[in-house]
Amino acid sequence: MALIPTAEIVKESNSYGVARLFDQINQQVSCLYNQIKVSFEFFPPQNEKAVATLWKSIDKLSVLNPEFISITYGALASSRNLTHDLIADVQQRTELTAVPHLTCVDANADELKAIAQRYWDLGVRHIVALRGDFSEDMKADKKPQSYAVDLVRLLREVNDFELSVAAYPEVHPEAPSANFDLDNFARKVDAGASRGITQFFYDNEAFLRFRDTAAARGIQADVVPGILPVTNYKKLLRFTEFANVNIPSWMDNLFQETDNDPLLSKLLGINIALEQIKVLADQGVKHFHFYTLNRADLTYSICHYLGARASCSESSVAA
Fold first, then answer.
1. DSSP state, 317?
2. CA angle centred on 138, ends 136 and 139, rounded to 5°
3. CATH dotted code for 36-312
4. Which residue of 150, 202, 284, 312 is surrounded by the most CB atoms within 10 Å?
5. What are the pLDDT digits (tens) for 115-156?
6. How far, in Å, CA of 137 to CA of 244, rounded?
7. Which residues is 223 bridged to in the sheet?
8. Residues β-bridged to residue 162
């Protein structure tokens, strides 16, 4: 899928040829949605206003026929129940495939097996298996009871779940090296995971290098890029402090003097995400996972630009 013109093509084309070339690229991008898969991530709301916002977003994005929507998960029991209840609501109210996150950092094997069986009985067949982050009251030097690879093995024992795991193009913050991190990804795939969904990133080369290195190592799993459209640059910088995500200097320049201009920030965020998708699609990526932050507007706009049309698909949300 050649979307990006090479320097040789541009150099050899006259001015009219270059104009036609970019028109052709835009035409291809505007029809890209039929050639890719998308999935959307949400998190459980904490109050009634947030509930309304979440369902408005799910309703709006459901017409785009995502491969699945995933629901994040907290380590504490109350958060676990919020995830389970939201998964049940999505299954009851829509025709979407609802995929829960499950973490093992603060639960024993019996608890995890019970949770997994509960999901299976609910009709869930796909889980995102994660180690999870330490809660504030857990000691920083405490070794987890289990890791994501252990959770993948446990879930395989419970039932024949499809399993996605996390992947880190710019290396997990706790990993001592890129090779160590890639070895860990390989172990999760060997244990039964079929897909790695990456941490959000803005360095496309880092993603492609990770994907290609994994393939060269013989790791048989799809590597799905996590796309986080920027809505608030200051909040993004806070995310990157603990996520080990590099922000390119050009991106920092773009967001200067945008603190009081949310519309400009959104327009920039849409453009950056679109450029990411153009480059990655040109390199053979077929599935994109959007971190929506429970807001539909940017993700919907990006998918619309790529050719998604609600009028061409039936809404998955029951009236």
1. B
2. 110
3. 3.20.20.220
4. 202
5. 999 999 999 999 999 998 876 655 555 666 789 999 999 999
6. 23
7. 196
8. 126
